[in-house]
Write a structure and sequence with these properties.
Blueprint: H1 16-21, E1 34-35, E2 38-39, E3 42-45, E4 49-55, E5 65-69, E6 72-79, E7 97-104, E8 115-119, E9 122-128
Antiparallel strand pairs: 1-2, 3-4, 4-9, 5-6, 6-7, 8-9
């Protein structure tokens, strides 16, 4: 049997004291679905580059704007959520809105080879590292002393 739990919107609020103590660390007070760093996201680093993932529920992937510069990626998108006609809303975890988020990466990226894909509500951006930013293995050269 399923247990029903009543939604309490005040559980998601933070105190004024907590908001003021974070005012210099954060540019906004986190809302549901966001973190102190912005929207929920994953960033993975491989030897070749970075993989950035963002859940974009309710977004049209054709309307997502991605700008990559040196070591920063900017993402803008709009979510469109609509309730059925004559429906009563009991709770709403997300709404139609505009979002933008920037991500600073630890090393420069090759913006010409950056790619993005959208599958099952997840935007995945592949960002190859610039050639000089990639790790290289250096072999030690052994020289033999000249015979006299």
């Amino acid at each position: 049997m399923t247990t029903l739990t009543r939604h309490d919107p005040f559980n998601e609020m933070i105190s004024l004291r907590e908001a003021l103590s974070n005012v210099f660390e954060d540019s906004f007070i986190p809302r549901s679905g966001s973190t102190r760093r912005g929207m929920v996201s994953n960033l993975y680093e491989t030897a070749e580059g970075f993989v950035l993932q963002l859940p974009l529920a309710g977004a049209n992937p054709e309307d997502v704007e991605i700008i990559a510069r040196q070591n920063t990626v900017y993402v803008k998108w709009t979510t469109q959520v609509s309730a059925p006609e004559n429906a009563t809303t009991h709770w709403s975890g997300f709404a139609s809105s505009r979002y933008q988020q920037s991500f600073t990466l630890p090393t420069p990226i090759d913006v010409e080879r950056a790619e993005a894909s959208y599958e099952n509500g997840i935007l995945t951006i592949t960002l190859p590292k610039e050639e000089q930013a990639r790790a290289r293995q250096v072999k030690v050269q052994i020289s033999t002393p000249a015979l006299v």
